[in-house]
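Internal tracking record. Fields below are filled automatically when a chain is submitted to the structure queue. Please do not edit lines marked as system-generated. If the sequence contains nonstandard residues, flag them in the REMARKS field before resubmitting.
Queue: standard
Priority: normal
Entity type: single polypeptide chain
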Amino acid sequence: MTSSEAAPAPLGVLRPWSIAGAGATLALITAALVFPHADGDFRLLPFLLATAAFAAAEFVQLHVEFRRHVYRWSVSEFGLAVALVELGGVWVALARVLALGVVLALRPYSPAKAAYNLGIATVEGAVAVAVLGLLPFTALTEPVAWVSLIVAVMAADVVGTSMVVAAIRLSGGHPGRQFWQEQLLPITVVGPFAVSVAVVAMLLVPVTPWAAVLMLPIAAAVVLLFRRFAAVSRERRTVEQVYDFARRVEGLSPDDHGTREMVAAVRELLNAERVALWLPPYLDQEPRLVVDAEDGVGWYDGPGDPEDLVRRRAVAPGSAGPVLLAAARAGDAELAALARRGAREVLGAPVATAAGEPGYLEVCDRRSDLVSFADGERAALDSMLTHVNAAIRQQQLLTQIRYDADHDRLTGLPNRQRLVAEIDQLLAGDPATTRAGLILASLDNHTEIVDTLGHAASDELLLVTAGLLREHAPPQAVLARMEGDQFAVLLPGLSLAATERSARRLREATSTRARVAGLDLEVTLTIGVAAAPVHGTDSGTLMQRADVALLAGAPGKGVASYHPVLDQQSLRRLQLGTELEHAMAEGQISVVFQPIIDARTSDIVSVETLVRWAHPRYGAVAPDEFIHLAEQIGRIGPLTDHVLDLALARCRRWLDQDIALSVAVNLSARCLGEPDLVERVARALRRHGVPGELLTLELTEGSVVDDSVRSSTVLADLHALGLRLSMDDFGTGYSSLSQLRQLPIDEVKIDKSFVLSMSTSQGESFIARSIIELAHNLGLRVVAEGVEDELTRNTLADMGCDKLQGFLVSRPLPDDRLESWLLARAGVRSAAPGATHRRLFVRA
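SYSTEM-GENERATED OUTPUT FOLLOWS
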């Protein structure tokens, strides 16, 4: 026999009572139509036996769940067959209703559920009586009577099942294939078998009461068979649930929507009230809690609480499958954990993730009042976890791919693509009024570090810089790494003026010395600023103009903001950069020479070679402009080679005239990081046939004292060629004379900023004197540049300065004018003792 132990509850109390009322009404109508026309005598002993048989059968049940319904099959067909034969009429239904009422009173049924079940029992009894009255039924010893009993009982089962289907339909559901499979065997096999056992018992017991003893093994076999069928049925349902879950999860999208559907599938297939999935933070994602609940209410914070009792037990190392807590078998701590959830029972299980911390899946309460989670559900959930873990890993793999697509792999910062999306999202509302500042920052010494120390040290420096920006950027800022040595900082809500202030503060805060590859390196940024809406209302324009502002400033010059005039400058820089190689080939880039004389003898000991560019469109391009440009675009090496060739060619012509006059060539700091520099200089000396002692390479103070240069052999290798090394602009950097003892430097050049003021400032004279004395103590020669008057010349000579350079001697001259100057101002001395070439001197 079938009955419903739960009523559908999606619409609250009204619908269960409506269904129960419909069942009771149908029962009354059926009873009124059938029982007045049915014969039956009340006999106490058969009535009590039938009632006991009905009651006993209710404790041997097969449960079939459908949402909030639990439909149960019992072997009450045995009692029904006995009641039909021994009682008949209305007493059949009364015995069935009485037995069922006792069972319902012992179990936690709601009034609506009890009324519905009693209605089904009444209808089943009435149908069985009515069908049996229509069939031939004479003596119980006749086989036709047995068939009639089986047909009557099966008819009652079919009607009872039909009422269950009607209840399902009224509750908004639709019985599926599984439901009919669950009902088929009890109707077609169990019912007829129970009737057969009842017939045998009724035939044998009147013959001898000991027949009841013989019937006990048969009854036990029926009970065991029914229980085994129930267990097999439950196992099959579990397998089908897992298979159905795997099929559903396989088709889910690997995103948040798919995760929500997966949680809903767990709840549906386990017929649970609530399911929650907690996932730890992963990459740039915050911790997530995905909840699916029958009542749609919010969830408590337990799944995200690492101290929660159920979660701790579930994710503990060595945990054997899902953890089950039930109020019936719980201690105080377990009861507190269940009360926190407002649940009667809970299943908790760990979820494998790629975050290094397990996730947590929690299932609360079966939707049935009577059926609870058991080992079968634990096994089902354990099997489902295999597919949950696979789905989570797939989703996290997709998250990783998306993260990698819009993040820099080295620093973990968003990349250019992500920054564009952030800017567009920020300006999506009203681009004309939305304020946003954009800062582009470039590392000043990145290229030198790459060339000198390699990419590993460069990566280390970039990580240091990213850390400094994270530390000092405003909280609302979006940081990004563009490419190479560039970083970006997006500042929502800031005006241009506020962005400029933030940029200056950021540059100041990040300017420091950092330990990289075992060396102390300077970290300084050059910054370009643009702001919306004043400089653009879309990401492309804003980034382009911030880039223009960045390129407009030379390294170390701080913060530059975009201005329309910079577009022309940027166009000019672009054109100069593309024409640099052509300009060298066409002779647009030439050199001029500035003589350097001995402070005591006035001998012309050297000429400094200075580069010039006469552009056909822009005219004379300042050396600082195109030299810095050549450094930025990686063409400083070819430019240096070009100048070196012109200087050595001039030196070779003097040698051909039997005149020894050395040439000095400035060497960019970036050239020191080029691995083939020494070989290129050596080839140039061989190509022009100039001895090394007639070449002086002038290096800036900052490049000479840089840790990376000091730790390399490039200066020693250059010095081994026989040429001289000179430290240019000495006194303006961070070096001390004591550092020079570690370097193969031959001379220092006092920066002209000290020399120009010597005639009017005692402080500058003191600095110059100190430099000269200390340099001589270290065995170095001293050159003073910027000498423009006789007083300064005489003062430097009195201090013991070795060489002089400046407008007092001569301005920088092109090759032809230098020849004229030498003819007009210079005389020729014979070769010094031990020398092979003549010398030039300045005539008084």
